[in-house]
Design brief:
This protein is an alpha/beta fold. Helices cover 51% and strands 15% of the residues. It contains 17 helices and 17 strands. The protein is flat, with a radius of gyration of 42 Å.
Amino acid sequence: MEEKQQLTAIYEISKALVSSTDYEENLRYISNLLKSITDFENVLIALKETGSDELKLFGNKENISYKPGEGVIGKVWKLGTPIVIPDITKEKTFLNKTKRDLKKYKNKKLAFIAVPIKVGDKTLGVLAVDKTYTGKESLDNYTKFLTLISNILGNSIKLFLQIKEEKKKLEEEKNYLQNQIKLIMSKTGIEGVVGKSKQILDIVEIIKNVANTPATVLLTGESGVGKEVFAKSIHQLSNRVDKPFIKINCAAIPEDLLESELFGYEKGAFTGANTTKKGKFELANGGTIFLDEIGDMPLLLQSKILRVLQEKEVERLGGSKPIKVDVRIIAATNKNLEKMVYEGTFREDLYYRLNVISVHIPPLKERKEDIPLLIYFFLDKFNKMYGKNLTISKELVNLLTEYDWPGNVRQLQNTMERMVILAKSNQLSFEDLPVDIKNKIKNMKKSEETKDIQIKSDNLVLQKSQLPKTVQELEKQAIEDALQKSGYVIKKAAKLLGMTPRQVRYRMEKYNIPFKK
């Protein structure tokens, strides 16, 4: 075999292994390359699969495998050394599992060279070739060449196995976390409600108890805490689940349109009313209507909502006949309705009608133990939505857990969706965060470091202020003791203290020590 052929083969194989991470494609390419560049008849690669005690022949449809010591390939695997058979057509013990047609080599010799694919002392597989052989050339040259190729293959296979193992661990971690989420959700029994904090579990308990009653529910809490999710949960757990769940945002619709949206209108009720239209209350008949941001509802409409609650009927704009409706009302607000009642901007009678069952949903910063679960819940959701398989670093999970999330669950959800869409690698990290949150986290860290420095500085100042006082007290006490021992003879007291009489007199004046005769 010419040296030029060897160098070309080594170069092309190395280039293929570096440029692609497709393990099977690489092996297929290497096998075909060796046959095209060299004069090998067949190229066989047998590898040990994870969890198996046999070598499996790569790329063979018949799933041929070898046990340790079985055939030439099995012996090479067991012994970890090359084996060369000059002519397999005359070797009766040759297994020929690939069913070569040996008759066509009747007038030729067909050599078989098998070398171990090793990493250190560990044999991962076997590389073997068939080669027509005249008997004149040395097979050692081919054996050395194949050993070099097998070493390159060994390192590549080792790297692949490491990546495969890492992926397996990440997949196992992902499955574990998904199962944990499902376990949490199964505890709550409510789809979409994720959390393990006492606050959330208490809310879940209230929802389960109230769901099958006709009681009106008032959900309170900051914007973005998930009030709509809990409203839907009440509906889904109730006997109205097969009826409509209709949401209307009282703050998003102009006042002059909100009434017609809620109660509908008759044909000709106003300019442009060319047909009769049902309102949301009629459309929700038998089901649930969710009045979001009810604190922004105008006073005039509040009285009409009160009528629905009291009389169970609505009247369309331009209509004269009341229409009976069976609707369960769930309201939500991020405002202080009690304060609004006191200020006269919200009807007191409506407030008490709505506030039959009151559920306060705490902000995310007050239930940080729920944040990791929500992170993995949203990651799984958006992975499925966008056809990805991303993971997230533990460091990022810890950072997101410490963040206060002023926009609550909605902000966390939007952040996770954005990161999944714009992910730069297979694992989400700090660099994938939106710039505004990234800067806030950096500032938060700086603030904590500054606070620590200030605390240390304050302690140092305190210690310094206490130090002179301690020295002064000790010095005063020492002078008083020396004066008493010397019978208030200053010369003797000075000698006891190792001072001059003048220094003793100065300190007696400084510390207001009276001179006793």
